[in-house]
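User: quick one, fold this
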Amino acid sequence: MKIAASFLVASMAGLGFWYARPARPADPVAVAFKGQLPAQTPIAPTPRARFTPTTRKGYYNIDVVGDFSLPATKTVTFCGAGRNLHVQQDRTKLFRRGFSAVDQTRMVPNVEIWTEGDPPRNWKSTLQQSQRSLIVYQAYFANSFGLPWASNSELARDVTYRTPPGARASRNTLFQASTELGGGCYGFGDCAPGAMKSTFGKIFLDIENEGTSRGNQQEQANLYTFMAKTLKDNVSPQTEIGSIAPVPHNSFGNSKAEHYMAQPDWLWNTPARQTATSKQRGMPDNIVGKSFADYVDFQMPGTYYLYPDFDYAAQHTGDGDRHWLASLLAEQEVNRKLSPKKRIAWHWTFNTQSGDYPNSAKAEHPAPPAVAEGMAVFYWFTGAYGVLFWDDHTNLVPDQPSPADPQQKGLGNDRNYACYEHYIHGLWRLFKHHGDLFNGRETYLNEATECSYDGGKTWVSYNANQIKTRDLPFVRAIVNGDQILIAATKAYARPNQTTQVMVRYIQNGYTFYTTVSLKGDEIFLGRSTMKPGTGSRG
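Assistant:
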């Protein structure tokens, strides 16, 4: 586990004093507005679909909304549960409900991917390359290639990079494991003549062995750099690769103030260099000076939720308290400043397992409606590139009797999957109605979104942690030309609670003011056309 230091103390040699780096960013100064506020511009709320969330176990209705697709600048890979519920009736429906790609394990055999021996001559997958994704788990390296390092990073110094010249060839090398992923074109029937280059659109690494002792860090950095380089050498030019870890910074869903002062994690950008034994084990000199971050195409900051994130009765406003929206936003706010790489987060609409928190031992709690919908809306306001929508279950069989074994209750087919319906509804609200704004020319305001919580007397821009600890409504905005799109919510609010917040944008020749009214913790989404103006912030 990587824990961000709350402060950094450096000795200023010869100067006779210590320099202490601040533990948290300075609070923004509220700007007082003097005089009369400019006229406000109405904002049109985005429609909501009318549907009754399912109460059936092991089932969700993918038709709670109609057809829509993602803009070409965004991607959502389906590695969730229950594609079998609708795929036989309409294989393409998944791609008309907000998903742009599907993981290999959810593909239709011998239609989307060939799984039975050699494909027939001239057979081609029905999937475009951009629709194909692959997750490579720890077991691929540990079991298929006899690399126990994948499950125990302390063994990094024992890994053979590639078979030394003159030695008997062995599959138990990191080179062989990474190279054989190039065969990913075979099941799609589109290998280039005389070459094996993977034609998956995206390859996600999920090894999860990044943590290691300090004395082993260089060996670990070398292996991750070599693995990423070798993988890139064996995929098509259109294939993008990334990994659940390392990321520039992992906040583990805590959204603390100190995380905004974090530096990139060591494994993300430590340059490879030869160690006492690495050259003998086959590490090439051509990766020296390069890092894992140099070779991957995207980073994967994000966090799975724990049950406290879904518990409305819990405390959510302390610096270290868990908060579903502060977590979602802060992870992106921190990492987008630490690396320019595109960001793809793992989304799971159930709680992950943790014995450290009450009611989190099993993944039995679905995200509440506003949380599931809000994940599918607010995440994209951070300027992120994509999502890997994941579940620990694959196929669903609806309406099964409750298991007699208490350990199986609340798992898989015994879960309520209405959270999927709310998540898809959020995607539909955003991209069905506002997909035109995501054309590559949009500006994501993130924590620079200017709000007033006192009726326009003062204006301030807060990051996600500052909004959380002040228990204020969350607001984020996207601007594209004269169009402004606003998402807002009062997280964890009571159903009968009403909240108002003002939003303004004074840049690029526009002066825009509006008031957003919030009901309970519903997800507000609205759009407006801004008028030209040269307003003042004070």
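User: anything notable?
Assistant: The CA atoms of residues 115 and 343 lie 31 Å apart.
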